[in-house]
Amino acid sequence: MTADSETRPLRIAILGAGLVGAFAAVALSKLPNVEITVYEKSQGIREVGAAITLTEGGLVTLSKVFDLEELEPILYRSPKHGHITRRHWKTGEYFKEPEPTHPDELKYSHAKAQRILLLEFILKHVPEGLIKYDHEVKGVDVKPDGATINFKDRTPVRADLVISADGIYSKIRRQFTNDKIIYKGAVAYRNVFDDSIVNDIPGVPDDVTVWIGKGSAMFMTRLTPGKFNVAAHLRDPPDVASKLKWDRGTGDWGKQRLIEHFKDWDPVIGKILDVMPESIAFPLERAPWLRNLVVGNRIVFVGDAAHPTSGVYGAGANMGWDDVWALYKSLTETSDRDYDLPSALFLFNETRVPFLKRVEEQIDIDQAIGAKYLATASDDDEWRKRIEKRGLSAKWITAHNVNLEFEKVRDKHFLDVFA
Ligand SMILES: Cc1cc2nc3c(=O)[nH]c(=O)nc-3n(C[C@H](O)[C@H](O)[C@H](O)COP(=O)(O)OP(=O)(O)OC[C@H]3O[C@@H](n4cnc5c(N)ncnc54)[C@H](O)[C@@H]3O)c2cc1C
């Protein structure tokens, strides 16, 4: 942008007010001389009753913008610092874990939150009047002098910088990639309900725990305040998966599907399933991740619009917050030059793309490990040994420090960008 910063603020349009778009609205509002508008297609807040992990890296990023003490009342921290414990599907015994490492301060330890409470928390910090609900974006036209955002049944608007935070089905990403959303072969069954329903069942876990069987998994955790979360991933055929949607209950069908599937597993699972209310269920999907997060120095992709994850490593939203923080830092560096967008967006892209590429590669490696190494174990003892050896801490992903990564990139490119 070349306009005089004293007369003309940088107009930033954020598309989507989900966990990442809402965070972008809070973080970027702290920049000097910007005018931010968020366009969200739904009529108001709508999140499903499910849980979300806040990783060590994600909490460090959130702490740049929020007072974590204010967030603490909605976080659940298990006795094992929130780390997921893994159990044998039938016996319920714990697998051996690699020695866990914890951040120095408890406030950065893995935590769980109800998605809806977390979204409400972030939205509460968005400056009033920034979010325009009922604004469905149809597409964005990019020209060297700015971008035009086109809506369904509304007048187009102009912006200097468009942030596409419109999720896995992003219209804007597909405007440039034409990619296809692919069913990953598993359906997620999710439920959050009052913990009073299960508190009297002997053996109800206090830890964040997952029972691993061949080809499926059952996650359970308590949530704050006074809730319990059941989440299962089951290999359902595409014709079953395609009938399910995240914003619709399954009626008794979903509950019976879980009871039937888990009937031979650790008995505590069946006891909890017997008393829980009906669940929601939706197919887990993915699309190729973007290898370039910037279009025409006018559009930036963040969150699931950039890396459509379906919950991989419990880190999708956390990686989205890191995208936003990298963008904030990049814009800050150039704010004294009327936001030199080509330089800022170069720094942003260089900070995020190499890391995201490594994560996406790891997803494929982990899938291959599941298919070739874990699934081919000759018997249960061998399978157990393989699971324990595999570890799966993914610490380098969940503890990634985007702030340090940004500094590394900025210092490497100092002469190109600032001299
Ligand atoms: C089963 C499951 C478990 C998960 N668990 C975790 C976890 O534990 N930890 C974690 O970090 N992540 C987790 N994730 C991933 C996480 O949910 C996503 O990464 C995160 O929600 C992405 O946020 P977002 O804001 O980018 O997209 P979304 O949350 O999808 O928000 C996109 C927003 O854009 C709006 N929108 C869409 N299209 C338009 C349009 N055309 N115009 C205007 N607005 C539009 C939508 O209405 C929505 O509000 C999980 C995902 C799944 C499926």
Automatic annotation (TrEMBL):
<dbReference type="InterPro" id="IPR036188">
    <property type="entry name" value="FAD/NAD-bd_sf"/>
</dbReference>
<dbReference type="GO" id="GO:0016491">
    <property type="term" value="F:oxidoreductase activity"/>
</dbReference>
<dbReference type="GO" id="GO:0044550">
    <property type="term" value="P:secondary metabolite biosynthetic process"/>
</dbReference>
<protein>
    <recommendedName>
        <fullName>FAD-binding domain-containing protein</fullName>
    </recommendedName>
</protein>
<keyword id="KW-0472">Membrane</keyword>
<keyword id="KW-0285">Flavoprotein</keyword>
<feature type="transmembrane region" description="Helical">
    <location>
        <begin position="12"/>
        <end position="31"/>
    </location>
</feature>
<keyword id="KW-0812">Transmembrane</keyword>
<dbReference type="GO" id="GO:0071949">
    <property type="term" value="F:FAD binding"/>
</dbReference>
<feature type="domain" description="FAD-binding">
    <location>
        <begin position="12"/>
        <end position="334"/>
    </location>
</feature>
<keyword id="KW-0560">Oxidoreductase</keyword>
<keyword id="KW-0274">FAD</keyword>
<dbReference type="InterPro" id="IPR002938">
    <property type="entry name" value="FAD-bd"/>
</dbReference>
<dbReference type="InterPro" id="IPR051104">
    <property type="entry name" value="FAD_monoxygenase"/>
</dbReference>
<dbReference type="Pfam" id="PF01494">
    <property type="entry name" value="FAD_binding_3"/>
</dbReference>
<keyword id="KW-1133">Transmembrane helix</keyword>
